[in-house]
Amino acid sequence: MILRTENVGKTFGAFSALRNVSVVIPRGRLTAIIGPNGAGKSTFFNVISGALRPSEGRVFFEEREITAAPQHALARMGIAKSYQITNIFPNLTVLENVRVAAQARVSRFQIWRSRAMLAAPLHEAEALLEFVGLTGRATFLAGSLAHGEQRALEIAIALASKPRLLLLDEPTAGMSPEETRVFMELIVKLARERTVVLVEHKMKLVMNISDHVIVLHHGEVLAEGTPDEIRANDDVKRVYLGQTQRAGARST
Amino acid sequence: MSQAPAAFARVADLCSRHRVAAMIAFFLVFPWLMPYKALAINVLILGLFAVGFNLIYGYTGLLSFGHAAFYGMGAYGCGIAIARYGLPWPAALAIGILLAGLGALVIGGLSIRRRGIYFAMVTLALAQCVYYIAYQAEPLTGGENGLRGVDVKTISLGLVELDFLAPTVKYYFILIFVALALWCLSRILESPFGAILEAIRENEARARACGIDVERSKLVAFVLSGLFCGLAGGLKAMHLSIVPTEVLHYHTSGLVVIMALLGGMGTFFGPFVGAAVFLLVEDQISLFTIHWQFFAGALFILFVLFFPRGIWGSLTHRIGRT
Amino acid sequence: MGARREEEVRLLEGRAEGMATPARSIMASAMAGITLELLALQAFAGLALGTIFVLLAVGLSLIFGLLTVVNFAHGAFFMVGAYFGVYLFGLTGSFWFCLVGVPLGVGCLGLVVERILIRPLYGRNIDYPLLLTFGLGYVLVDLVRMTFGIEGRNFSTPDALRGSVSIGVGDFPLYRLFVIGITALILLGLWWLIEGTRAGLIIRAGARDPEIVRTLGVDVSRVWLLVFALGTALAGLAGVLAAPMRGVYPEMGVPVLIEAFVVTVVGGMGSLLGAVVAGLLLGIVVSLTSLVAPPMANISMFVVMALVLLFRPTGLFGRAGLMG
């Protein structure tokens, strides 16, 4: 168990986005958090990644309470995230994007020596670019990359802080089916060495690759278990049946 | 876009890789490019002021409207040390710099927050507060008449006695400090911390998620910026032999914003270009009208609308270098 | 203030002049016996001072809340309002005409500024509109200097509003009472506009989420245009109201801009209630400080701001939406 939430709730004014969410994220596995749009997935993601403070309840990372911890502290503890809307450093080179993320782990206020003297972050960045297949783009400005490449860069930046827990928020949004397939292979590769939590609303995508699934609905946990258990779950079928029918009618 | 001749491209490349040396070389001959030496001296001093501001705005992305506080604290610190306590100029300059850094720590501590929407307003207000305090503290600062008696007539450097009152001597003396400051700035920008500042400017939220303590880093950058501006202020005090209250006023804070934008933010040489252009424009226009502020303001508006990269920034952007 | 009170205060100030430190000023006041009535009168004067702050801060907050633009020309619009008042008064001799004409005129100027200068900057770096209004401030000040000269102008209190009125604890200038009254009316009108009308609903919705307003078919840029005009009109009105109290000179916008910023930070950006409370509070603080410890009067509002920044950084009523 790497991350645990205890009765987490989040309200925005009168609107209650999350209610009584208590889940356990198993270590070393790929966990998917699914649910229809508006289920509270993004809110929950933001709470466990430190971007939002819950209105009630607590969050524990490796048994340390992180409910009120500032975001930058979480990265240092070993939690990294990628964003739903691509969030990179547009006017820095692709290499520098990853390098500065790797450097952030080891250096805080070194103002005198040259950054080129720090060999480790540079090597790590090069290795990561290789891993996500962006070596050829290393000297390009990050803002000039194609959408799929930017998503890959996102992952590389997230990996640069050597996280034990990697949080991905709808990483395949806006990708073509081919790009999605390649990306999903990457995610499975990642999950072998660390815990990965994936937030997705495309159920089919994640059921085949996840070890553990959490279903959210209207801000509450509807079901939790292995993909098979979830597939057999009546509540889930009821909630999603309408969704898949509509989706089926629209897709080619 | 026309192809730059090969020689020019080689020189440009050399300059961008050894920018501090290139700038020093340029400034060695600069006085002869200006109509008169005092203008060249002002360009150096105000340029240094703008360099300090550029660190926090151009490189970190924080728009401060209160930087006159640090320029002024440097000026008053140095000036008071010399005029009221008779300290030698090296100690006075150091005091001015340290006072400015301390001021930056306090003002930065109050204005740098998680939600930065108030930053411009708070820095403006706090700097004006410093202005009012200096205005009131008449026995120390001379009140509304300014501080008089910041007399530095000769500079002894070991065996050599320099006549500080001679404009040429003054210029090269000040250039030594400007060169040192630029060298320090270059190192800071090249450092790992410099990379952090760039990341913060590019995408603050992302920087935070990477583990960067954004608020703490901004504060460090703010204090460093204050130190540079304090040095500029101290040099100004020595140059003028008086410290006018205007050094702390909103207009001076606005001045440095104008110079930085005109020249080009986020570039190394831009602040000096901005200072030179502004001072030349003010100098020439006040020859035939007292309403030069109108032209300065209109020029500034034009730049914000059409040339936000500034003169040097637009130039280097076209040539493709920083 | 009654003649006797004025005498007392003048004596106080005279004695305090030779003394530099705040401590001695406080002692001087204590010696002369600051009565509760004097304090109450001074606090009331602070209300009058505060209402000008409020009008400015409300305009600033409206513009920021909706357009996310910090209007650095706000003080300049205030100054233009005062001068436009001088001009209209010279033309018509009617202060009441000025009260209507000035906000209309300054609002029109605001319309033009938003349309031509600020609109091109939306979508770019969020600092650019701020920078532009900053430059605009300089342009407006020198334009006024070119038109009206660099010396100040006199704007005497309109005849109908001269003299003092008894308010229980003493005599208070009628004009200042009028300013308090008219500001209260305007605030009520604003409140009705924002809470009770469809236009106000659009403004509130637009402050929270411009996208929603757009999808509802409302022209967001039109809303922004009008809100900017409204904000600057309020600044202009504040200028003409303040003219008899503060005098009219081209540089009058600078201290006022800073005051508006301090009030906004203390009250909370985007909150109209915050602007009102903070404006009145700071007016009273400054006024009382100038009685009890005159050398500290100028910096008293910054002390309050510093305290707010330390203990409640988003402002007393700071929140994302309007009318929070």
Question: What do you see in this structure?
Answer:
The complex is a heterotrimer of chains A (252), B (322) and C (324). Chain A has two domains: 1-78 and 167-175 and 195-252, Rossmann fold; 85-162, no CATH class. In chain A, 39% of the residues lie in helices and 23% in strands. Chain A has helices at 41-48, 71-77, 94-106, 119-132, 147-160, 177-191, 203-207, 227-232, 234-250, and strands at residues 3-12, 15-21, 24-25, 30-34, 56-61, 64-65, 79-82, 165-169, 195-200, 212-217, 220-225. Chain A has a six-stranded mixed beta sheet with strand order 7-8-9-4-10-11, with helices on both faces. In chain A, strands 1, 2, 3, 5 and 6 form a five-stranded antiparallel beta sheet that branches. In chain A, a hairpin with a 2-residue loop joins β5 and β6 (64-65). The model of chain A has no long low-confidence stretch (mean pLDDT 87). Chain B has 15 helices and four strands. Chain B has helices at 6-17, 19-29, 37-57, 68-83, 89-111, 119-136, 138-141, 167-190, 192-202, 204-209, 214-240, 250-263, 270-285, 292-306, 310-319, and strands spanning 147-148, 154-157, 160-163, 242-243. In chain B, strands 1-4 form a two-stranded antiparallel sheet. In chain B, strands 2-3 form a two-stranded antiparallel sheet. Chain C has a two-stranded antiparallel sheet with strand order 1-2. Chain C is built from 13 helices and two strands; from the N terminus they run ααααααββααααααα. Chain C has helices at 3-17, 22-32, 36-67, 74-92, 95-118, 127-148, 174-196, 198-208, 210-215, 220-246, 253-267, 272-292, 297-311, and strands at residues 164-166, 171-173. The longest helix of chain C is centred in the first third of the chain and has 32 residues, at 36-67. Residues 1-21 and 320-324 of chain C have low confidence and may be disordered. Chains in contact: A-B, B-C. Chain B binds chain C through residues 63, 65, 110-111, 113-115, 117-118, 120-122, 124-126, 128-129, 132-133, 135-136, 138-139, 250, 254, 257-258, 261, 290-291, 293-294, 296-298, 300-301, 304-305, 308, and chain C through 20, 64, 70, 72, 117, 120-121, 124-125, 127-128, 130-132, 134-139, 141-143, 145-146, 150, 254, 258, 261-262, 264-265, 269, 295, 298-299, 302, 305-306, 309-310, 313-314.
